[in-house]
Amino acid sequence: FGGGYVIVSLMQKKFVDDLKWFSEDEMLNLTAIAQSAPGPVAINTSIMVGFKIGGVLGAVLSITATILPPLIIISVISMFYVAFRSNIIVASVLKGMQAGVSALIADVAINLSSKVFRQKDWIFILLMFISFAATFIFNVNVMYIIIFSAIIGSLKIVFQKNKTQGDNEK
Question: What is the reported pTM?
């Protein structure tokens, strides 16, 4: 419980304070690099620590040791979920959790869209509405929307860069 940063702090205590395999700066650097890589920070950090200590074999062992316990725990929980799924109390709790998650997603969507409006960039505002319509009205696959948005964003950067260079040459 507590997410990846809890595990990173435990790794720091073990590897820096107890075993003295890394300096505090090295551990902070490994964590910073792990944060910038895609994926969960705890898994990325464990891969980097394992690789630094034992090469490829160390990375494989550390990823296995990081993933296996949660995988086993989730598997056991899922067996109980199937057994208690029809229980009215469990079903009510899960429905409540769905409502809570929906509210969190709505909050994120509202906050992100308000930031787009504050930028007052008509291309991004139009892209936001097109993406919304493509998803909810026309049922377009999200991957196509992400690729299309990335292309539009890249083109905007290229055109802005060219315009800036043209203005600088004048």
Answer: 0.48
